Amino acid sequence: MELKLPALGENITQGTVTKVLVKSGDSISKGQSILELETDKAVLEVPSPEAGVVSAVLVKAGDVVKVGSPVFRLGGTAAAAPATPKKESPKAAPAAAPVQAAVPAPAAPATPAHMPVRANVSAAPSVRLFAREIGIDIGQVPGSGTGGRISVEDVKKYAKALNTSRPAGGGGGIAPQPLPDFSKWGTVRREAMNNVRRKTAEHLSYAWATIPHVTQFEKADITELDKVRRRFSDDKRKLSITPFIIKVIAAGLKKFPQFNTSVDMATNEIIYKDYVNVGVAVDTDRGLIVPVLKNVDKMSIMQISDELVAIAERARGRKTTIEEMSGGCFTISNLGGIGGTFFTPIINSPETAILGVSRGVVEHVHTEGHFAARLMLPLSLSYDHRVIDGADGARFIRFVAEALHQPFVLDLQK
Amino acid sequence: MSQSVQLVVIGAGPGGYAAAFGASDMGMDVALIDKEPNPGGVCTWRGCIPSKAFLHAAKVISEAKHASAFGIEYNTPKIDVNKLRDWKKSVVNKLTGGLGQLTKARKIKYVQGEATFVNSNTISVKKADGGSEQLTFQKAIIATGSRPSVIPNLPRSKHIWDSTDALEMEAVPQTLLVVGGGYIGMELGTVYYELGSKVSVVEMMPGLLPGADKDLSDVLYKRVKGMFTKIMLETKVVKMEETPKGITVTFAGKDGKEFKEEYSKVLVSVGRKPNSENLGLEKTKVRVNARGFIEVNDQRRSADENIYAIGDVAGDPMLAHKASHEGHLAIEAIAGKKVAWEPQAIPAVVFTDPEIAWCGLTELDAQKQGKEVHVVKFPWGASGRALTLDRQDGLTKLIIDPKTERILGVGIVGVGAGEMISEGVLAVEMGSVAKDLKLTIHPHPTLSETIMETAESFFGQSTHIYKPKK
After folding, report:
1. Which among B42, B414, B431 is positioned nearest to B217, based on CA atoms?
2. B62-112 tens-digit pLDDT
3. How many alpha carbons lie under 13 Å from residue A21 in its C-beta half-sphere?
4. Please, which residues 342-361 of chain B have a Cβ atom closer than 8 Å to chain A?
5. Omega before A378 within 30 of 0, i.e. cis
6. What CA–CA distance (Å, rounded) separates B283 from B275?
7. Contacts of A176 (CB under 8 A, 6+ apart)
8. b/e map of B129-140 (b: 16 or more CB within 10 Å)?
């Protein structure tokens, strides 16, 4: 029997095999990891949906595999003809083998990645051949012609839509301008984007093109907070400022529900969420990924701190699951460890706001009639102007700044 | 000593030679093996081509007879069977000789003989000139075709013919029984009738041409009923016995009653069997199904990675044009192109008078599949062209998907149906809708107009058919 790539989570249709964890002849149990697969945002270990003995491995590292396409053959039963693209050397064939009893083996399968024959498709033979040549299953292509007839343009359109998971979203429907020949000015090299980079590029282009962004700046006085943070830090657990900010955001999202929304332009509806999940952007060697902390409103600052350390480690070890990266309401991007003051973060669509955090700086601040040295934290709040008005943006960032200024307020709100 | 080639094609019929020629044109080093001195296969040597030569002669006789209806009288024709046979031979020789020249011009290694597999990379050829030769190959295409099926337990007799014997035409028998009302029997029965034989047909099924829609075969039935001495449907042949003058045949009718009849000759045309035996396939991984067809995938590759099969030996329908298309497909698959066998319509033509042709979905298919279809028919009584030919015994019909109005199948009976069906094949392959056919201007006055008019009547209005308003 053929073992097909199981469904791995919403919106995951395919992935690149990074490692094959079993080989032909291995006996595997149900749930055992059989493949390591790099999907758009994460490297996953794929569990086997069945138990059995692997009779053939149909994929190798580097292959792009779609959900539902065969990856292994399990068996030990009928001597099914191998579907591997590898040609058997003619000498390996049992040239002088005795006449074999008729073992039921199906006619050899067609070439790998061969599209199925569709008996009743309304498309000219030339169009069907074109689809086959470019690796499109004509049975999946919607026809725009009379009686649902499929044209070459329909096939091209479908292929394009497959290539960009958000059709026409990438550039907001803007055709790319041709690039100049950069080598005129010096040597250049081209590198393929990895999955994370490609997905980031598509996703942020979409967000930038579809969300009217406004970025509101503010500085929060965290002099007292910093003292608290240091007091509760020890050798085992180094508290950073981020768990405090997450806790403040959790309170802010409850107080300002329009910051915990998504926009459905197809139905002209705003979706309000009653849960509070906050994503934290993590810088990895493969690029930016955003694990999500679930139900932070129900967690203590210490729990959040521990969880943050754990997710950052998993992210850098490529262990983050798709599940861990889904379901965010709001994102925090903390660049304070690197420096800089303000920046204009791009909203992690379909969320409607993001908080950028920069490095705290000691400033002379005029307060209560005199200047004092205060540790000031630059905050940059980008919000979706479709659902959040400028006044609310200012109110929200003031709430955050106040809460950070006077950390005990948080406890009062518990 | 064994020679090595990239591709060996076994069988030089329309499938095999198309594959060999195409592969050679692609730059492959090709060997082509066949029993005959030149390519052509059953189709050219003893099938499509000689039968059509005879059918043409039959048509001339029939039309000359028919001309008296509009005032042109011919004397009864004098038929010189020897000359007719020679003419047929010359047609066959011209065609097969031409194919031989095309083989030489392409520098294809042609070996006259019989090939058997030694293993998945080697064949051994028993040459017609007595020697034998081994050839190693990278890929092989089996295109060995089919042969007439035989009825078991028949006596061996020179009075019992198969289609090959009938096309040899040693003489025109006084009486001829055709066993099997399929296309081969009906075509050859027509030939011998026009040449002067008294022809009878016996068929087990309740209608002629099993597989064709009944409304089409009925038109033919009506005509041959007036020509043939007897058409025995739902009747079985129980026994045949050789007599000094011919064959005595015992029949069993629908009611089980037996009766006897004597004929000068009996033509057995009860289908064809694939030639998959004696090829040494057991030395390869090729698999053959219960009916003797080689099992192939959608690229015509067998269970053996190196071996492909096309044409009659690879499955129904056993038609030359299907074989040649499969030949092209197989060599493209061998060349690594992304191709698959996915025709939407393979035309079938019965070259009787009138001809019957169909393609795509038939009404019978639709019934079997439980598929809802809309069928529109245009009887040729309303065709001006049919009237000028004095041949209104015709019908054009379209099988249409009621939801999308797509043309799913086309069926035609009438003179020239075989030439007309190509438009239907194109319509089905292109995914045409009824409106496309209606809006395509057809020349007047032609029989092809009936296709357009059938499409018109799908929309409730046809120029030459009046339907009273309700």
Report:
1. B414
2. 999 999 999 999 999 999 999 999 999 999 999 999 999 999 999 999 999
3. 14
4. 342-344
5. no
6. 16
7. none
8. eeeebebebebb
Q: How far apart are the C-alpha atoms of B42 and B40, rounded to whole Å?
A: 7
CB contact under 8 A, B431 and A88: no
Count the helix, strand and coil residues of chain B and give each as a percent rounded to the nearest 5.
Answer: 35, 25, 40
| Alpha-carbon distances of A387 from A209, A265, A270, A384, B447, rounded to whole Å | 16, 11, 8, 6, 68
Strands in B258-263's sheet, in edge-to-edge order, are B236-242, B247-252, B258-263
> What three-state secondary structure class fits B189?
helix
Cβ distance B306 to A96 less than 8 Å, yes or no, reads no
Nearest Cα of chain B lies from the Cα of A89 at a distance, in angstroms, of 11
Q: How far is B429 from chain A (nearest CA, A)?
A: 6
Find the largest Cα–Cα distance for chain A: 104
In sequence order, which residues have a C-beta less than 8 Å from that of residue A2 and are 6 or more positions away?
Answer: A58, A70, A72, A73, A74
The alpha carbon of A43 is separated from its chain's Cα centroid by a whole number of angstroms, namely 10
CA–CA distance, A54 with A20 (Å, rounded to integer): 12
Contact B120 A109 (CB under 8 A): no
pTM confidence score: 0.62
Pairing of strands A70-75, A261-264: unpaired
Query: Is B297's Cβ below 8 Å from some Cβ in A?
Result: yes
The count of other CB atoms within 10 Å of the CB of residue A389 is 12
CA distance B260 to B275: 34
Chain B neighbors of A130, CB-CB under 8 A: none
Taking the alpha carbons of B109, B128, B4, B45 in that order, is the dihedral positive or negative? positive
Residue of B nearest to A146 (CA): B433
Q: B357 in helix, strand or coil?
A: strand
Q: Count the Cβ atoms, other than its own, within 10 Å of residue A251.
A: 20
**Which residue of A lies nearest to B335 if distances are taken between CA atoms?**
A111
Measuring CA to CA, which residue among B201, B155, B139 is closest to residue B176?
Answer: B201
A124 touches chain B (CB under 8 A): yes
Q: Look up tokens 């097909």; give the residue.
A: A4
**pLDDT, tens digit only, all 414 positions of chain A:** 777 887 776 566 778 888 888 877 777 877 777 888 777 656 677 777 777 788 888 888 878 888 888 888 877 433 333 344 444 344 433 333 344 444 445 566 665 567 888 878 899 988 998 998 888 889 889 999 888 899 989 998 888 888 764 444 344 456 677 788 888 888 988 888 887 788 888 889 889 988 999 999 999 999 999 998 888 888 888 888 999 999 999 999 999 999 999 998 888 889 999 999 999 998 888 778 899 999 999 998 889 999 999 988 888 888 888 888 889 999 999 998 888 999 999 999 999 999 999 999 999 998 888 899 999 999 999 999 999 999 999 999 999 999 999 876 555 454
Note whether B297 contacts A108, CB cutoff 8 Å: yes
In terms of DSSP bridges, do strands B395-400 and B407-414 run parallel, antiparallel, or are they unpaired? antiparallel
Give the closest residue to B199 by CA, choosing from B170, B218, B225, B221.
B225
- Is A306 marked active-site? no
Helix (H, G, I), strand (E, B) or coil at A284: strand
